[in-house]
Amino acid sequence: MVMVAMTGASGAGKSSIANELLARGFAVQMEVGRQIVSEQIATNSTNTPFQNAVGFRDLLFVRSVAAYDRWIQHKAPVVFFDRTFIEALAFSHIIGEPISTSMLHEAQKRSFHPVAFVCSPWQEIYKKDNERSHDFEFAKRDYDANCKAYSDAGYELIEVPKLSIEERADFILENMAL
Asked: What are the angstrom distances between the C-alpha of 112 and each of 1, 2, 68, 78, 96?
């Protein structure tokens, strides 16, 4: 099984690419962070990036690791991840919080394809919504932190060009030789 990470800036089109790959029949793990924020808002809980950043980070890490572990049991030859537990490590740097040794240990036990696909900040498509209330400047910090976290973890980063959703999905598949 090949597990492929997509990372980068928030609001840069990763989820749209993930939906396109899903429509083409690929297995996709949709972004856990957006799911968490949606659930937290719906239940009037506070583990969101804008209310309890550490609580959100911890929940993001645990749920992202669990999602990874569930896919290990799956028979799909390729699984694309719209963000991963590595983003929780990157978020730690954004909020100025240390990463626990247990988080590092759990992250090091899991790996993705050596190439991670990166979507850079793209102001023309960036939009705030219920789950994304931060501004474009935060999206740029998110991008920088994610790129550093993946690079520090040993992944080669390939920038996804700013094209149509279909062309961006094609680009990823071509660079994966799929």
From this structure: 10, 7, 10, 11, 26
According to CATH, what is the number of the domain 2-176? 3.40.50.300
Amino acid at 45: S
**CB-based burial, 119-144: b 16+ in 10 Å, e otherwise:** bbbbeeebeeeebbeeeeebbbbbbe
CA distances (Å), 4 to each of 51, 97, 149, 152, in order? 31, 27, 16, 17
- SS3 of residue 82 by DSSP: strand
Q: How many C-beta atoms surround the C-beta of residue 168 within 10 A?
A: 22
Q: What is the pTM of this model?
A: 0.92
104-147 pLDDT, tens digit per residue, is 999 999 999 999 999 998 888 777 667 766 777 878 999 999 99
Instruction: Tell me whether strands 115-119 and 2-8 are parallel, antiparallel or unpaired.
Output: parallel
Please answer whether residues 130 and 40 qualify as being in contact, where contact means their C-beta atoms are separated by less than 8 angstroms: no
The C-alpha torsion from 14 through 26 and 20 to 126, rounded to 10°, is -10
- In angstroms, the CA 133 to CA 105 distance is 31
